[in-house]
Amino acid sequence: MTTTKFPENFLWGGATAANQLEGAYQADGKGLSLPDIMPQGRQRIEIMNDPQFDFSMDESKYVYPNHVGIDHYHHFKEDIALFAEMGFKCYRFSIAWSRIFPQGDETEPNAAGLKFYDELIDECLKYKIEPVITISHYELPLNLVKTYGGWKNKKLIGFFERFAQVVLNRYHDKVKYWMTFNEINSAAHFPVMSQGLVVANGANNRKNIYQAWHNQFVASSKAVKIGHELDPNLQIGCMILYATTYSYDANPVNQLAALQANQANNFFCADVQVRGHYPAYTKSLLAREGVALSDLDYTQEELDLIAKYPVDYIGFSYYMSSVVEVTKDDNDTVAGNLIGGVKNPFLKASDWGWQIDPTGLRIALNELSDRYQKPVFVVENGLGAVDEPDANHYVADDYRIDYLREHIEAIRSAIDDGVDVMGYTPWGCIDLVSASTGEMAKRYGFIYVDEDNAGQGTFKRYKKKSFDWYQQVIATNGDNLD
């Protein structure tokens, strides 16, 4: 415990993604996105990685939860009012690319899609809630996958640039905080989510992963350039998935493996986007992946752009830590946020097997701050759990409160360590569809949504016990966590 105060301008809030809560998947001219054809279930990514997968839907066989989400598209005023009641200083959400450019490659945007975000942003500002917008959050228009092969195709740089130009032009005078690509580094393990790559279109060729990353780095720098030319005070960050990574023991072999895992999983994408150049270990990292730097298609002009327009801050998700052990084959393993690892005997786990490690968040904040000397923003953190409402739809989610309290204490400790932390936006501040499994049963929110895994229910919103608790946390600027 420390007596350190959170900064007066600390951005307390919550986080969501368009594809997981909006629903209305074909309303007002919206095109199909990649999540729209992802079936529900813990095997959803495995299904998509079948070599015969052709990006089509089979509604006789599967449920497609992203079609409905929690119908935020028609409930956003009610939802924002609830966020305001909690006292949110900011709200992190994303703009669905296929609402603005339904196929992704049009030259003119969809006016109805822009109108929705006009109203959403204005609703936030009405309550003095700062929008924090992720430009691309696992929402690639399906046409860009089927026609162009996803982010391995350099043409997507231009399509993204046009998308970024439209939204930044339209909203730069209302929105200060932006991020370019959500969990960009998650493609190290599951490129379908952020790059639109599955086995059928080249995910097994690691060259394609690194080419897609390069293209995204260029696209990200183009967005930073656009934003800063519109307003030099805009804050445009990257966003990475971060799992603090430990060696299982003091064996130097495991220590080296942990270092290399950190480079590959936690640091590579941020190193390029924050520092503005490829790190010195790039050649050896690619070699371990069976890729030569000369295999990639890049130009000096692109490298110069990346160097000139790095991001302003590091946004990151933190749910769990990871353990590396490479000296034996019979390790107990655990699940995780797209990545798992060896079981850590010192930690407990969530209902979905994610290991709970608040100290790992303090370490993550210190590691990122020490490495980059730029502000850091915890834009995702939370506990996915099976909530059991009583007869009055009330959820006494003390387990969630305990999880969040411990992680907020870890942030306070990191601030005491000297880390410049911008804010904290717990994930799924209102229940939504899980990205990894497509379930509603895996709930994160302060607000319960009456909806089941089949998308059935009243869609009424109910405050959980954690709602009042988080309201108190924000009202006291983190002083009262009881």
UniProtKB/TrEMBL annotation:
Active site residues of this protein = E380 (nucleophile)
Q: Which UniProt keywords apply?
A: Glycosidase, Hydrolase
Q: Which domain of life is it from?
A: Bacteria
PROSITE patterns per the record?
A: GLYCOSYL_HYDROL_F1_1, GLYCOSYL_HYDROL_F1_2
Do the record's keywords include Transcription? no
Entry keyword Hydrolase: yes
The record's listing under PANTHER family reads: 6-PHOSPHO-BETA-GLUCOSIDASE ASCB-RELATED (PTHR10353:SF122), GLYCOSYL HYDROLASE (PTHR10353)
The family annotation for this protein states:
Belongs to the glycosyl hydrolase 1 family.
Name of this chain's protein: 6-phospho-beta-glucosidase
Q: Which organism is it from?
A: Bombilactobacillus folatiphilus
